[in-house]
Design a protein that fits this description.
Blueprint lengths: L5 E6 L10 E8 L2 E11 L14 E4 L3 E6 L8 E5 L14 E5 L13
Parallel strand pairs: 3-4
Antiparallel strand pairs: 1-5, 2-3, 6-7
């Protein structure tokens, strides 16, 4: 629904994070990746200003990172093509039908490519 979000708090004080490593947070539904964010962990407050915020989310090690995201409506989660297999002779044609469904199994009748 519109304006509804998922929120998770990553309590980094519970993990031994390495400031030399970039961490990727991924939002997945099954095997489908809906999005991601790359996190640059720093060990001191002065290093926060050096993080390229257009590319990374800056995070001071030991702090809690609130992660907030939403899933857009009409996201194509599955494409089923029928027939699943076909043998087509040269100069002949075969018609295929594709059915697109969203994350809830609802058929999308007019999906717009993103």
């Amino acid at each position: 629904a519109e304006e509804e979000y998922y929120i998770v708090n990553w309590h980094t004080d519970q993990f031994a994070l390495d400031p030399a490593v970039t961490y990727r947070i991924r939002a997945l539904v099954g095997d489908v990746e809906l999005g991601f964010a790359d996190v640059d962990v720093v060990s001191g407050g002065k290093e926060l200003k050096d993080v390229s915020t257009g590319e990374f989310i800056p995070l001071l090690d030991g702090r809690t990172l609130p992660i907030k995201f939403r899933i857009e409506q009409g996201f194509v989660a599955r494409v089923e093509v029928l027939p699943a297999q076909a043998t087509v002779l040269v100069t002949r044609t075969q018609q295929f039908t594709a059915t697109l469904t969203d994350l809830h199994g609802n058929v999308l009748t007019d999906p717009t490519p993103g």
